[in-house]
Design brief:
heterodimer, A: 274 residues, alpha+beta, two-stranded antiparallel ribbon, 6 helices, B: 408 residues, 6-stranded mixed β-barrel, two-stranded antiparallel sheet, 19% strand
């Protein structure tokens, strides 16, 4: 038995909800310091995109003080495709609760994230388990989202030096290059982000690994207005090295800045929701 | 009197000199046999570690399983496939297995682990993963690798949660009772193994009558390629990939070869040292008898007879020494073969019990073993050396001027 292969398989394992919660946590996790709705800002000045404003907008695009949302996660692999619907509650950047609503086999399974801790409640066996910190830096089942992306509270503004490359033809928009700052430890050496002509909507982001190879592409689409937040409601991640793999995250409904009591994010509440 | 008789009598004339030469040869032959026995024992350990509990002699998988190791790339209708394989005349037994990465949680904290679902009956045989287990593994219960148990603090009788992803992508989770903590020759199981019955694993991971891998053990280890060929040509197995262990773990075959080469190298060093010792002893004992040879020449003995005499003595000493060394060598191997030699205990404080490589344990408890003809190498080498080491001084002795030789 090849030990290293088995170990890779073991290490890369996590539970489905693990990735979901961080994905949700980073897209919906609130930035309580944010005050203005960036949708109203102007991103084009003298015919040139205002990069500082655009990058800040992308960083804060899905963030708010609190939220309740419904979303769908579709994981496509060469031999199967799974769809999960879930409801999420977020408060600030640190608190996220996800409860699976469908399919029936997973219904009621809940995941709670508080700061860097993550718990899963498994209704079938009535157990709550805490996900080990070692899982935070590994990929999820070899799937398209890596846990590093999901856990790491990356900030384009803080972690990358960015510059305008020019206009993009396919798709139409502005191409911005982001290079990881030398002191930042992460998976990505460089990103290429294409934003719409008016700079308000990201269209895609290409991720290049530490060796400079294109590793994956994140596509943003289906722009919708949620509570005055005009944001892409669908994210699709396609890895370069896994033919036939795709992970899609579709926001069906988001209520921003709604009251969410602290009690929502407690272990006892997690178990009561069974 | 015949030369051979005189040579034989000469051995008893200077007992101290003869004893010294015999000792040198016997020790050399003993060292050769003991080293050979230990190297064979170690090589057996490595081969057994590979083909014993974890890899087997032949394996069968879904054609893409080895590339992706995904649960849905399984062998279907596994009961029927196992029956077909068991009909092969060289197959001893077949074990169906499921491997699945999971999280295991004895309490609230979860740990990374790997479920190994296996056929309890066939894995309880001599070389199976469950060999030596006090009680057979029961349904609803699991065995935990001893290192994983230490990490997770899991205890026998405790209920643990096992959580992973099923073959259909759904959430697999269930509770199991820890039946026992195991120490297994497969290091991957010691480090991260949750061992459960194949039926429990099939149920947990939604794999009805399916398995990730079939481990086939041959009646004799040399038959792995024959079995592979026959099974690969069997239409009843469909597109299932069948491979001998040499192709499953080629890097371990390389290690095995390297281990053999290291063994040969050690053997050559011992061999050269032994030969040098014998040559030195025989040459010294011949040179110190130059006065005696001078006397014989003065009395009219022909030079060639002196040469024959010396060579005969050397051959007698060689055969006797090899016989003594062989008895000692086989005695050593016979005395240690049953209980083995615990090389780990030579490590002193903080010793290790075994070495692990590529997920396989290489036990440091070695059971020396010799083949029937191993002593012949020593016999032939020592006789040739004895002759070679005596011919030169004998040739010098044959050309001596008697008067000068007697003055020496």
């Amino acid at each position: 038995m090849k030990r290293h292969k088995l170990q890779v398989a073991v290490i890369s394992t996590s539970i489905f909800f693990f990735s979901v919660v961080f994905l949700v946590g980073n897209t919906l996790g609130g930035n309580s310091a944010k005050t203005d709705n960036p949708t109203k800002q102007s991103f084009i000045e003298n015919g040139e995109p205002n990069l500082d404003a655009i990058i800040k907008y992308i960083d804060d695009m899905y963030r708010s003080k609190s939220s309740i949302s419904r979303l769908k996660l579709i994981v496509t692999k060469p031999r199967n495709k799974r769809t999960l619907t879930m409801k999420t509650w977020t408060k600030g950047e640190e608190k996220v609760l996800v409860i699976i609503e469908a399919p029936p086999r997973e219904k009621g399974t809940a995941t709670l994230k508080i700061e860097r801790n993550l718990w899963n409640y498994l209704p079938r066996i009535r157990r709550t388990i805490r996900i080990p910190p070692s899982m935070m830096l590994t990929s999820w089942m070899g799937s398209d989202f890596t846990n590093d992306d999901l856990v790491h509270e990356a900030s384009f503004q803080k972690d990358y030096d960015y510059s305008l490359v020019g206009r993009s033809a396919d798709p139409n928009g502005w191409l911005i290059e982001l290079k990881a700052k030398p002191d930042i430890v992460g998976l990505w050496k460089k990103l290429e982000v294409i934003v719409s002509e008016d700079g308000r909507v990201p269209l895609l982001a290409r991720y290049y690994d530490r060796k400079g190879r294109l590793a994956r592409t994140l596509y943003y689409s289906d722009v919708k207005n949620f509570d005055g937040h005009i944001i892409p409601s669908k994210l699709a991640l396609i890895p370069e090295d896994k033919k036939g793999h795709k992970t899609e995250l579709i926001y069906e409904d988001i209520d921003f800045d709604v009251p969410v009591p602290d009690l929502t994010f407690s272990l006892s509440n997690l178990e009561r929701k069974k | 009197m015949r030369t051979a008789q005189i040579a034989w009598r000469n051995l008893g004339r200077n007992k101290k000199r003869t004893a010294l030469a015999l000792l040198a040869i016997a020790v050399a032959q003993f060292a050769l046999l003991a080293t050979d026995g230990l190297m064979r024992g170690y090589s057996d350990n490595v081969r057994l570690a590979i083909t014993g509990p974890m890899v087997g002699h032949v394996q069968a998988h879904h054609p893409n399983w080895r590339r992706e190791r995904a649960l849905d790339l399984a062998i279907g209708q596994v009961d029927g496939i196992v029956s077909v394989i068991q009909q092969d005349p060289d197959v001893e037994d077949v074990s169906a297995r499921i491997y699945a990465p999971v999280l295991v949680a004895p309490e609230e904290d979860a740990f990374v682990a790997m479920v190994v679902g296996l056929s309890v009956e066939s894995e309880s045989s001599k070389y199976g993963v469950l060999s030596g287990l006090k009680e057979p593994l029961e349904r609803g219960k699991v065995l935990i690798g001893h290192r994983l148990a230490r990490k997770t603090n899991a205890k026998p009788g405790q209920e643990i949660a096992v959580v992973g992803q099923a073959a259909d992508g759904s959430l697999a989770n269930d509770l199991y009772i820890v039946q026992d903590i195991i120490k297994c020759p497969a290091d991957i199981i010691n480090q991260s193994g949750i061992v459960m019955s194949l039926q429990d694993a099939q149920r947990l991971f939604v794999m009805p009558n399916q398995a990730s891998e079939l481990v086939i053990r041959a009646k004799t280890s040399g038959k792995s390629r024959d079995i592979t060929r026959r099974l690969s040509e069997n239409p009843q197995l469909g597109s299932i990939e069948v491979l001998p262990w040499q192709e499953i773990v080629p890097e371990l075959v390389l290690i095995l070869k390297m281990s053999d080469y290291v063994g040969y190298f050690a053997l050559v060093i011992v061999f050269v040292a032994a030969i040098a010792g014998i040559a030195n002893t025989l040459m010294m004992s011949t040179f110190e008898r130059m006065h005696e040879f001078g006397m014989l020449l003065a009395l009219g003995t022909r030079p060639m007879r002196i040469v024959r005499l010396i060579v005969c003595e050397a051959i007698f000493i060689g055969i006797l020494g090899v016989a003594i060394g062989t008895v000692l060598g086989y005695g050593f191997v016979a005395g240690t073969a049953e209980r083995g030699i615990d090389m780990a205990s030579w490590g002193g404080e903080g010793q290790v019990e075994d070495m692990a490589y590529q997920g396989l344990n290489l036990p440091l408890h070695i059971y020396p073993r010799l083949e029937p003809f191993d002593s012949l190498i020593g016999l032939v080498a020592v006789i040739i050396t004895s002759m070679a080491a005596s011919v030169w001084p004998a040739w010098i002795a044959g050309r001596l001027e008697p008067v000068e030789a007697m003055r020496a």
